[in-house]
Design goal:
451 residues; mainly beta; 16-stranded antiparallel beta barrel; 4 helices
C-alpha cells in the first residue's frame, strides 16, 4: 500500500512539472479540472491506506493478546468414578466382577426327640435326616450364626474368538472344627462353586445339571424345601446348546448295610453319573425336565463284596406366574438309586442284600410353594415339602428313614435395595420304618445385605 501512495504522488508532481503538458493544454481551466480529479483519486487512495493500516493494527493487537495470554491449564484428570454394582473392572481381556452377601440368622428351635449336640449342622439349617428321634424333649434352644455369608468372583472375556468365563464362590457353611461357640463362633471357608465356561462348555464344580435352582422357594432357611429338592454341587463337564444340556458328573454311592446301620460312603465308582436337561421359558413362566443315569458300586475286599447296580431318576419342575407379581413353584422327582441327590441324602442310594449285592432304593419327593407380594418390599412364601422312601425292610432294617416333610411360612421385608429382613416359622418331622418319629419347630429371624 505504501508503494501505491508514492506512485500517485509522483504522478501528480510529474504532471505539474512537465513543460510539454503545459503547452499541450488549451486552457488553464482544463488543467485545473484535471488536477482536481487527481487530488480526489489521491484522497481516495489515502482513505484506503488508512483503513488498511487500522485493520492491520487491530490484527496485530489480537496477535499480541493471544501471544501474551496465560496458557490455559491442562485438563485435570478426574478420578475414575466407582463402578456401579455389577459393572466390574477390566483386567486384560476380561471383565472382573465380585459380590456376595452378609447374612445373620437367629434360630429358636424345639425338638421332640432331644436337642442336637452343639455344633451339629441341624442347628444351622434344616437337614431332614438329622431330626432327632427317641430322645427326651428339652426347652427351646437358641442359636445365632453368620455362616451363610457368601462371596463370589467372576470373569468374562473373549480370547482367540472364544467366549471364556469363570466363577468362584465361597461361604462358611461348614462345621466349626475344633472350636465352638464359647469365644469366637469360628467357621471355615467352604468352596461352593468353581468352574470355567468356554463357549457352550462348562468345566468345574457347579450345581448338578439334574437340579433346577430357578424354582427354589424364597426361604429364611438355607434350602427351605429340603425334603423335596434335588440338591447337589459337584465337579462336572457340561455341554449346553439352547434349551438342552448334558453332563458327566462326579459319581458317588451311599449304601445301607444289610440289616441297617451307619451309612457307607463307598467311593468306588468307575463310571461318572450322566444327566440330561431340557428347559424352556415362556411368558407365563418356566419349565424344566431332567434325567439322571448312574452306576451304583461298592467294593469291600475284606468281605469279598464287589457289586454294582443301576440308578436312574427323573425330575420335573416349573415356576408359574400368578397375576403380575405372585408365582407358584413346583418340583417332583422320582427314581431308584438317587438318594444322595434328593433331600440332602435323606435316603441312601442302595442297600446290601443278604447275598452282598446292591439293591437300588426307590424315592419319590417334591415340593409346592406359593409366593405372594403384599406391597412393594413385602412378600411371603408358603412352602410344603415331602419325601417318601421305598425301603425293603428285609434288607434295610427298621431304623431306615421312611418319610419326611416340612411346612414353612415366612414374611420378608426389603426396606432398601439388596437389604432383607424377615421371619420364618417352620414345622418339620421325620419318620423311620418302625413308625417312630421326631419333629422340630423352629422360628428363624434373619438379616441379609447383598453387595
Amino acid at each position: 500500500m505504501t508503494r501505491t501512495t508514492l506512485f500517485a504522488g509522483a504522478a501528480v508532481v510529474a504532471l505539474l512539472a512537465a513543460p510539454g503538458m503545459a503547452s499541450a493544454q488549451s486552457s488553464q481551466a482544463a488543467l485545473e479540472a484535471r488536477i482536481a480529479q487527481l487530488e480526489a483519486e489521491l484522497n481516495a487512495l489515502k482513505g484506503e491506506v488508512v483503513a488498511a493500516r487500522t485493520q492491520q493494527a487491530a490484527q496485530a493487537q489480537d496477535i499480541i493478546r493471544l501471544e501474551t495470554r496465560p496458557a490455559a491449564p491442562a485438563p485435570v484428570q478426574q478420578a475414575a468414578a466407582p463402578a456401579s454394582p455389577g459393572e466390574g473392572f477390566r483386567i486384560g481381556d476380561h471383565t472382573v466382577k465380585f459380590g456376595g452377601f452378609v447374612k445373620v440368622d437367629a434360630y429358636a428351635s424345639r425338638y421332640s426327640g432331644g436337642d442336637p449336640v452343639n455344633g451339629d449342622a441341624l442347628r444351622e439349617f434344616h437337614i431332614p435326616g438329622s431330626i432327632p428321634i427317641g430322645g427326651s424333649k428339652e426347652d427351646t434352644a437358641t442359636d445365632f450364626n453368620a455362616r451363610q455369608t457368601r462371596f463370589w468372583l467372576t470373569t468374562d472375556g473373549v480370547v482367540g474368538g472364544h467366549k471364556i468365563g469363570t466363577r468362584m464362590e465361597m461361604d462358611f457353611q461348614t462345621l466349626p472344627g475344633a472350636g465352638d461357640q464359647r469365644t469366637t463362633s469360628p467357621a471355615n471357608p467352604a468352596l461352593r462353586r468353581a468352574f470355567v465356561t468356554i463357549d457352550n462348555w462348562l468345566i468345574g464344580q457347579e450345581w448338578t445339571n439334574f437340579q433346577n435352582t430357578a424354582v427354589l422357594p424364597e426361604s429364611a432357611d438355607f434350602i427351605g424345601a429340603a425334603e423335596g429338592t434335588v440338591f447337589a454341587r459337584q465337579v462336572q463337564v457340561r455341554y449346553t446348546r439352547g434349551p438342552f444340556s448334558v453332563s458327566v458328573e462326579n459319581p458317588e454311592t451311599t449304601v445301607t448295610p444289610f440289616g441297617g446301620g451307619a451309612r457307607i460312603v463307598a467311593d468306588d465308582n468307575s463310571i461318572p453319573d450322566f444327566t440330561a436337561r431340557y428347559a424352556v421359558s415362556r411368558p407365563w413362566g418356566d419349565v424344566q425336565v431332567a434325567g439322571l443315569l448312574r452306576q451304583l458300586k461298592y467294593q469291600n475286599p475284606a468281605t469279598s463284596i464287589d457289586t454294582t447296580a443301576a440308578g436312574w431318576g427323573l425330575s420335573a419342575s416349573t415356576k408359574i406366574k400368578v397375576g403380575s407379581k405372585d408365582d407358584l413353584r413346583l418340583m417332583v422327582t422320582g427314581g431308584e438309586g438317587i438318594g444322595r441327590y434328593v433331600g440332602l441324602n435323606f435316603s441312601n442310594d442302595a442297600v446290601l442284600n443278604a447275598s452282598g449285592d446292591l439293591d437300588a432304593i426307590g424315592v419319590v419327593a417334591g415340593f409346592a410353594a406359593y409366593r405372594h407380594v403384599w406391597a412393594p418390599g413385602w412378600r411371603s412364601s408358603l412352602i410344603w415339602s415331602a419325601q417318601k422312601v421305598d425301603n425293603d425292610v428285609a434288607f434295610t432294617g427298621l431304623s431306615a428313614n421312611r418319610s419326611a416333610q416340612s411346612l414353612h411360612a415366612n414374611l420378608i421385608w426389603s426396606p432398601v435395595t439388596a437389604f432383607d429382613v424377615g421371619a420364618e416359622l417352620m414345622f418339620a418331622d421325620r419318620e423311620i420304618e418302625t413308625g417312630a418319629s421326631g419333629d422340630m419347630t423352629r422360628l428363624i429371624l434373619f438379616a441379609k445385605y447383598g453387595f
